[in-house]
Structures
1.
Amino acid sequence: MNKIARLIILTVLLSVSLSAAAEGPTLIYWNSDAGKVLRARIPADADYWQLSPWFAEQINQTYCSVASAITVLNAMPIKKPVDPIYAPNAYFTQSNYFTPEVIKVISPQTVLAQGMTRDEMTQTLIRQGVKATSIAGDSIDDKALRILLQKALGDDGQFVLVNYLRSAVGQAGGGHWSVLAAYDAQSDRVLILDVAKYMFAPAWIEIGDLHKAIATIDTTSNKARGLVLVSEDSQNLGQLYQQVAASPIRTDDDRQVDAARKPAEFLQFAKVQPGMLVLDVATGRGYTTQLLALTVGNSGKVWAQADKPRDELSKRLASHPQPNIIPIVRPYDDPVPDDAPKLDLITIILNYHDIAYMPVDRVKMDQRLFNALKPGGHLIVIDHSAKKGEGITVAKSLHRIEESVVLDELRQAGFQLEQEGDFLHNPADPRDQPFFHMKMPTDSFALRFVKP
């Protein structure tokens, strides 16, 4: 091969090499043609659907950490502070994020000057009452990162904050915080919701490129950047459920039936959390309604539905007013208020059997309940078990219903069964008497459905 030919080949190879190096990581932005394809197949259980209504833009050029944190916190069904700007509504802002406890970790002035490290992000989130787990970018490989994000970005109760170096993903800038929202298995990419919306649209990045960007060193901490996983603190919730069950405003009659109804176990099974919007169908005397209202707190609401005014509930609220309980009178086949926002939770406790023998269009009712829930919202049905094969034939005489009837009807409405609870199961119950003739707790089924 002569010298000229060799020179040409070397020039071509060098050109290709330089071109590839110049391209670096390839981001796919939200409004690009490829981005439209990816966003069209965002999974129904992706965090994106919970995060997008609360997606915040950083209010200055160093508050990316705070904007990312409040995006996640506002998407979570937890107790939220009331900012005077939005009073009386509870809402995390980039101002009220800095509680006295948070300021012990880092001050607004420090964040304004230099941003927030991964450890500081973790500690400030913990002080907001949530569980926060820090993962260094250099402590995992591509495979582990992929497995982690496939799970965490689905409907598992976790959200993911990401700290990465912008230049490592082909963008102008330095260290940055944002929120991860979805994983696309076909392209092996994750969606970054960039809180600097004035600079960059949301973008999809390959797992390998993301790993390189989070494994870079933060010059403030001299540690690798990385991820922070955020979820509710189950230990705190367990303590809350016990406190609710022990509340002094609950009646003596309530406490007499607690052994059979197990209020703390019920709240745990229903996954009730502060700030939730809840509908209690067939409220009766308000036993369940009050438990729900005490748990969701002042930042949540409970609509207590009945088909006619209930004196027992009125007396309960007269003795101990709870502004977050809203009594409503509506028919069972249309139990949701017309002006209600999308709900987090609906409960029908020990009353589906009553509705079954009434002149109620249950198909219409179940569809109305399905439509009222947010995606990922839950419907809880608990009722006295009938014998196999009895269906709804003993609904009026024995006040029982066969579990399979409830399962079939709600699945037809679009619900998916998420979990069956056995905390009210009593195998000693012969299931041949109504509950008010029993000297023992009835055998009751507990079903948690989810709206996909």
2.
Amino acid sequence: MDREKNSLDQHRSKTQRKKNALALQSLGDKLTNFAPSQLSKLPLTEAVIVAIGEYNLLPKKHGARKRQLQLIGRLMRSCDYEVVSLAIEQLPRNDAQATKDSRNSRELSEKILTEGNAEINAAIKEHGNLDRQKLRRLYREYYKGSEAQQQKIRSKLANYLANNSSK
């Protein structure tokens, strides 16, 4: 099979091979904007997911990101471009569910911040994988902090609940 693939690549012009490589690199660039939970739903190899995670950790200057994008593009050769593109197009359809989950986590975070330990205990009963200590720490920090810190903590709590409150 590799021989057939190599022979097909040799019959393509250098320009066409470069266009294909740039298309894969562009697709990889799009993928860097997705959350890890979304990436795991796509038909990607583990190496591509790890490379995308490393890309997101790199500083935004000095060309390191450009080199990492080239690596992602090279690793994307092992993935089917059409299948991945189709899966990406289907993801936004699920955004309605993600928006609903986000709204539910914001509502739950507001309940926790207003009702305290009683709501924390209820949330832990409903969603067993939440960390009681973390929830209580965020609750205490919220009431100790300034207005700017309270907004950050409210956001942290909502993000924590969104990522960890699956049944």
3.
Amino acid sequence: MRMQLPESPQRPGGAVTRRRLVMGVGAGAGAAALAACAAPGGSGAPARPALTSEKITLTWASPGDQAELDVYVKVAEQFTQQHPNISVVNDAAASAKDKLTTLAASDSLPEIIFRTINDFPAFVTPANIWTPLDDLIKRDQFDLQDFFPQIVKPYRHDGKRFGEGKLHGLPKEIAVRSMFYNRDHFAETGVTAPAPDQAWTWDEFRTAARRLNKPDGSRYAYSMETWWAMWAIWAWANGGEVVDDPWAPTRGTMDGAPVVEALQYWGDFVARERFAPPVAAYKDLSRSNHFAQGKASMYNNGRWNVPNFRRSTFGWDVMLMPRQKQRAQFLSGSAFGVARSSKWPNESWELLKFINGREAQGTMTQLGLLFPSRMSIARGDAFLKSTPPASNSVYLKDVEVARILPMHPRYPEMQTELDKIAEEVLAGTKTASVAGKEMTEQVNLMLKG
């Protein structure tokens, strides 16, 4: 086993066009080989093909910080112990979107590829770099039923819409968020957190934030992520939606009254109430570290922050996001898959099964890095008793109401443009009404392009 760390950032020599990407993944020999092995025969499904006895090396696009990478290195070593002739290289650089695009265009993808939910569509259409997995799952009786269906659905595509059709990746996690809160700040100000199975109303959240906030700026009530999903949660809770159909969007709907109302409510945390830091404040201290260092009392984000927060000197826990007309959270995550171009498709599938097996997910869960995509682990002691936080059941409740942003190849461009507009709402230089119209226009242009 070896780990290949990212190279120093370099400006690419030229843009990777869609045509070049198509050329890079056009030869799907690996996918064809797997399909041949998995296709039903005349007397039923064929037996699993024997793995090669040659000494080979598989490359695994491995994301995350050093702590996460260390886990993947350990998983790779465990796989090689079971298959001594197969070495695994953990390539951190290949997990980056731009790097993956370049590798696809040059037909040099790693055997195991990685993408997050909202980057995934750009690598499915117009050119699909992923090997379909359904026949292999059926052939090997892989326990897909153990995964939360909510996090499996986004990696399906039937040629027209996402969420249906063939499965192209196995989810490594559910990146559902939770509201972290500082128990010491709550006790100091007489604020009582809701029970783990209850959610504050918007009014209750705002009342608590006003009590927690210190007007001199020494402590904010709420450190907040400011990208699209983080205000979409409030829009969904208010009964709104950002597009007409997130699985196959055709138009934006952010000019609707429920979205506009929620966007203004969210923007006022900074622009009027001032119980959240201005965006510029995060240049000196990150959003998560505002919470970790006790400079903010609440923070909504993912489970991967837990190892950092466990080093804090104050007591903390998690609670559900505030509700309005309904409860809502943001669903994201990431998946590993087998590249269509893999020269060792059967061995790559064997590695993918191992990576997404119970043992590997259990190791990640013990570190506190993720909310596991396997229900058996998420509902077991390995997750629920991994403390702090004490209220891990919150994640199980929030996944029930978690929703996705548009599944579309141009999603990253949409987010870039919408985040610029949202910052103007936070600064108080643009109303949510105007912003909602502009956001809808921007998304509509990209959906037509």
